[in-house]
Write a structure and sequence with these properties.
Layout lengths: L4 E3 L5 E3 L2 H27 L9 E5 L6 H17 L3 E5 L6 H8 L7 E6 L1 H8 L11 E17 L7 H10 L5 E4 L5 H13 L4 E4 L5 H8 L5 E4 L4 H6 L2 E6 L24 E9 L4 H15 L2 H9 L3 E2 L4 H22 L5
Parallel strand pairs: 3-4, 3-5, 7-8
Antiparallel strand pairs: 1-2, 5-11, 6-9, 6-10, 6-11, 6-12
Amino acid sequence: MNPVSVHRGPGRPGRTGPACVHRACLLAALSVGLVLPFAGSAWAQAPAWPTRPVRLLHGFGAGGNADIVTRLVAEPLAAELGQPVIVDARTGAGGNIASEYVARQPADGYTLVMLTGGHAVSAAIYRSLPFDPVTDFSMISTVTFYPLMIGVAAASPFATLGAVIEAARGAPGKLTYSSVGVGSTQHLAGELFAAMAGVRLVHVPYRGGSAPVQDAMSGQVDLLFDTITAPLQFVRSGRIRALAVTSRERSASLPDVPPVADSVPGFDVTTWMGAAGPARLPSDVQVRLNEAFQRVVARPDLQRRLAEFGGAARSSTPAEMARLIETEASRWKRLVAQAQIERQ
């Protein structure tokens, strides 16, 4: 059979055949061999996360514990990630506004939230939430654990927690107590205290920050239920009288202040803060964030600052943090039922 003629251009006959086919294959192979190493190099050099600033949200006002701790974490976290970390406060609903916002963001690692113990409390105190406290988030790591404090203004007639309980029993519904929002740990700690002490108090919620402390000092609210962080400087200056801490043991930051359990046997409330992102974060991003937070929490300077505010620095794996929230939510649900605290 005669070979088939092809035309490569005017007046230039050519032929196809085994030799031509082999040359074509060889040229194709060579061209692929030249392209693939460059393509692989381009893929290997693709920029790793993060390539732009990361937002770190919290849900409480300026000057409060969540704001202070988030800002303490942001600077060393930025150094670990090699990108700016921007603190963004979205206040209200005991931190739930910030939590809901982050739960609805793209799962790309650029929007994170510092959760507080109120995240688990909300699962117990609210009948329904616009998010699931566990499955709608990718947990990253815990950062700190700490007790709350009950305090009064320096001019208050109450010198001890026992005196508060006696006065509250004599005038049900007269004394007020602060919290950083409905569904916060402070809110439920106040309700639990009232139930266990057999008294009735009036809850006054704030958006967090320094407002509860200021109103306690001015006498606008009778009792301050807050972290040690926000009022500590005023306790030391004598403008606030610390009556009790909510942990079972005394706090190293307030060694002369007794635990609530001395007056209300069995009372024990501690809380925490930790970082999370939207559900379904890419595994490599979640691992990178966990490693970064592990290093941040291990820094001696951060541990020292947290201890000054009554906190104990403690990191975790994502799975450990998820179990903490599940356990705390179950615990608070039992306490709410046992104390017959009204759900919101």
